[in-house]
Amino acid sequence: MNSKKDIWLNDLQRRRENGPTLHKASYSECKDSTKSVHAGQYNDPNTGALGTPIFQCSTFYLNDASYKAIEEGRGRDEMIYSRYGNPSQWSVQEKLSALEHAESSIVFSSGMAAISSTLLALLDKGSHVVSSRDIYGGTYNFLYEDLYRYGMSVTFTSPTNIEAIEAAIQENTKVLYFEALTNPLLKITPLSDLVALGKKYNLRVVIDNTFLTPYNVKPLDLGVDLVVNSATKYLNGHSDLIGGTVSGSRKLIDTIWPQMLKNGGSMDPHACFLLERSLKTFALRMRTHNDNALQLAYFLEAQDTIKRVYYPGLLSHDQYDLAQSQMKGKYSRND
Ligand SMILES: Cc1ncc(COP(=O)(O)O)c(C=O)c1O
User: Fold this and answer.
1) Bridge partners of 205?
2) Could you tell me which of 207, 244, 229 has the C-alpha nearest to residue 326?
3) Beta strand 173-179 with 153-157: parallel, antiparallel or unpaired?
4) What is the CATH number of domain 282-331?
5) How far apart are CA 155 and CA 132, in angstroms?
6) Neighbours of 53 (CB within 10 A)
């Protein structure tokens, strides 16, 4: 099925810059700890104040450059209105892109806003999604209760059995949507196999990486098209905001942006500030989470009163080998 949207996605030749960005500094050669501190940070050139200010404004003065950009369909690269874009969003988006190895990212008001906008942007009436029976409840509800209202459909299958996933693909399938590590039973989706299926059937592969974060696996490096996160969890890590992210190629993210404008789920500048602050300690926090979780899993497994512990870093986990090869951190011995 070749809809108008496919033609646009696959054939548009216009060269796109990474970003949008506030400045040209690149941290692509740095490690995650350095990127999480410096990438995207906007230091005020007038005062020298260190750290991105909170740009608490709804709208921006328009000038000739902004009007021209809007006319040419480059509205995403200009400051127009804070639902469309805001320096606080751009700054944290750039940090996320550096951590995800993405050309572009969007931050949303929640993980569910990121997930629903991403899927609605990729799907047309009549199209079908293959997803997992092991999936976050809110995502399940959106796929199960809402897709059919737009004339779309979903099949839920196993996240670990690639043959079952292939068998669920239909003529009208457009998207494979899975969690890299499932909520709550910690099953691992074999990402390279899923990407191979996506290529074989010309499908978009979208991965929710909330439970692992780009510290433990960077799905885009494995060929996944788009990675979504609930930033509410580890990315923020301070339990003081709700947020979501999507990252991928500039071309794909540019197709999600108009959907975000329509759904209205952009991230508030103050939440952007909090998220950027949190990401500065991202690598440190994730290393400690991994260490502590493994110690806890060992401890729990040693208790007579506990029947089974589901943790991919334990030898007893039935996907232990996949955890070793697919993930970094204390899921593997390479940290
Ligand atoms: C794996 C996963 N994805 C998405 C979400 C939704 O994120 P939010 O609560 O930020 O909308 C959650 C929330 O628990 C989650 O666990």
Assistant:
1) 176
2) 207
3) unpaired
4) 3.90.1150.10
5) 8
6) 15
Domain locations in the chain as residue ranges: 4-279, 282-331
Return the CA Rg of the chain: 20
pLDDT in tens, the chain (335 residues): 445 455 444 555 556 788 898 887 888 889 999 999 999 999 988 999 999 999 999 999 999 988 998 898 889 999 999 999 999 999 999 999 999 999 999 999 999 999 999 999 999 999 999 999 999 999 999 999 999 999 999 999 999 999 999 999 999 999 999 999 998 899 999 999 999 999 999 999 999 999 999 999 999 999 999 999 999 999 999 999 999 999 999 999 999 999 999 999 999 999 999 999 999 999 999 999 999 999 999 999 999 999 999 999 999 999 999 999 999 865 655 44
Ligand 1 neighbours (beta carbon < 6 A): 110-112, 136, 138-139, 179, 183, 208, 210-211, 230, 232, 242, 244
CATH 3.40.50.11540 given to domain 4-279: no
Q: Which tokens go with 38?
A: 């410096």
Residue 219 tokens read as 């799905």
C-alpha 91 to ligand 1 mean position (Å): 23
- Per-residue CA distances from 59 to 78, 256, 257 (Å): 11, 21, 18
Interval between CA 111 and ligand 1 midpoint (Å): 5
